[in-house]
Amino acid sequence: MGEDALPVYELFAIRYATRAAMRSDHFIGGDPHDGPMPMDYFLWVAIGPQRSFVIDAGFTAEVAAKRKRDFLRCPVDALGLLGLSADAIGDVILTHLHYDHVGNFARFPKAEFHLQEPELHYAVGRYMRYPRLAHSFEVDDVVGIVRLNYAHRVRFYNGPAELAPGITLHPAPGHSAGLQFVKVHTARGWVVVASDVTHFYENMETGRPFTTAFHIGGMLEGFDLLRAAAPSPQHIVPGHDPEVMRRYPPPRPDLAGIVVRLDVPPIA
């Protein structure tokens, strides 16, 4: 299908949680100019003319309390701000299975979940005996995805895939063994929802990976994959950077600080 014939999706980021952190928390090897560097948590939504996709599922208030995150709003309930209902969502793309990307899976009763197969093998495999790696997962989330697979509601991929016209999946393992990013065709062209391939703009721009790492070389290659997939650096949206809320406009004034549009050029 030619690009002119592709559906044009509206694309949004919903900010649902945050946490105070330092620069040294976000770069392997620390940072010589340490100082505050907060982290935001997002859920992304692609709304098309016939079909809509939710990208990741966030975490719950209970997990926020357990992990000492500042929970701002339920990301699933916040879908209503965009006129969507989780009960009607047919597709949820899981970029990976870390706790902050999969925790509300049970709130999507009709959805099929789209995941790179190596991620599930990683989450139930031998590396989970190491607390440094297992810490990023919630056991109940992982077990929940296994149960959904037995219920025929998980579709697995082993490499790049076109999920639907205008929605493509791209593996970029490193931060996690089965991490993927998503390309969405919008009015400003293809936008790359990087998720945790780069947590912050600065991770990619300076070539310094985030501290949670399964394979550092893979993380560095992931930056290259993002650049190759995007029309320009301004078309790459990182997974946890508060800058996203400053660089993009809200869809309407009452959603300022809560939702931003990613299908329009950055304003800053």
Provide the descriptors you would attach to this structure in a database record.
single chain, 268 residues, alpha/beta, Metallo-beta-lactamase, Chain A, eight-stranded mixed β-sheet, 13 strands, 22% helix, 25% strand, globular
Bulk shape: globular
Mean pLDDT value: 97
Q: What name does the CATH topology carry? A: Metallo-beta-lactamase, Chain A
The protein's oligomeric status is single chain
Order of helices and strands: EEEHEEHEHHHEEEEEHHEHE
Total of domains:
1
For the sheet with most strands, the description reads:
8 strands, mixed
- Looking at CATH, the homologous superfamily is Ribonuclease Z/Hydroxyacylglutathione hydrolase-like
**CATH architecture classification:** 4-Layer Sandwich
Radius of gyration: 17 Å
Q: Tell me, what is the CATH class? A: Alpha Beta
Query: Helical stretch count?
Result: 8
- The beta-strand count equals 13
Low-confidence stretches: none
Beta fraction of the residues?
A: 15-25%
What distance lies between the first and last C-alpha atoms, to the nearest angstrom?
Answer: 33 Å
Share of residues in helices: 10-25%
Q: Determine the structural class based on helices, strands and strand pairing.
A: alpha/beta
